[in-house]
Write a structure and sequence with these properties.
The chain is an all-alpha fold. It folds into 2 domains: 1-65; 66-185, no CATH class. The chain has 8 helices and no strands. It has helices at 2-20, 29-33, 43-60, 67-89, 96-125, 133-150, 157-162, 164-183. The longest helix is centred in the middle third of the chain and has 30 residues, at 96-125.
Length: 199
């Protein structure tokens, strides 16, 4: 499933990069396909591509295949692959500002991975989290981190909120947060009273 998911992820990553940063890539099929010669991929597009693929599987499934748990495992795996990817990207960074920005992102995503592994995964395995919650938390962290990083780009406040990438990230953040609240039944959920279990 993950290997098949690479293809929609790669296509969406390329489409988003072309739409947001280099429209010339979309003008010719060869420039779109030949990534080594016409480089450029969007991390946001890759996440949306994988998410769309898994969402398609969730809608089409006809058995009790644990897709939510697979989403969670994939999210944890992605949280450790991101800092490794950013460290690799440091080799291609040319400006001091870009190096600092990429290094900060690598550290942030590594901390997120530790949080997921130490706290969130344990809550999932012990039944304190419903399956699929870690995936929603990953989307919340991912969109929030990118929105904060994009603040440091040289752009006005109006330009920041008119940027399509930032608008997409805000939409993902709000959608994932709302879905997580609904998924965990946090609204109207009464805390357990002490001594209710006979102690």
């Amino acid at each position: 499933m993950i290997f098949i998911g690479i293809f929609p992820s790669l296509v969406m990553s390329r489409l988003f990069y072309g739409a947001l940063h280099a429209k010339a890539i979309l003008s010719n099929l060869w420039t779109f396909i030949l990534i080594p010669y016409y480089s450029g991929l969007s991390l946001l597009g890759a996440v949306i591509g994988v998410g769309s693929y898994f969402l398609f599987l969730a809608v089409r499934r006809k058995d009790s295949f644990p897709l939510e748990r697979i989403f969670d495992i994939f999210s944890i795996a992605l949280s450790i692959s991101l800092p490794i990817g950013f460290l690799g990207y440091l080799l291609f960074s040319v400006t001091r500002i870009e190096i600092i920005k990429v290094a900060i992102q690598a550290v942030i995503y590594f901390v997120i991975f530790i949080i997921f592994l130490k706290f969130f995964l344990n809550r999932l395995l012990t039944g304190k989290f419903k399956e699929g919650t870690i995936s929603l938390l990953f989307l919340i962290f991912f969109s929030a981190v990118n929105l904060v990083i994009n603040v440091f780009t040289k752009v006005t406040l109006l330009g920041y909120f008119k940027n399509y990438e930032n608008l997409t990230l805000i939409f993902i953040l709000l959608l994932a947060a709302g879905t997580a609240v609904w998924h965990e039944n946090l609204i109207g959920k009464k805390p357990a009273k002490k001594g209710s279990n006979g102690t």
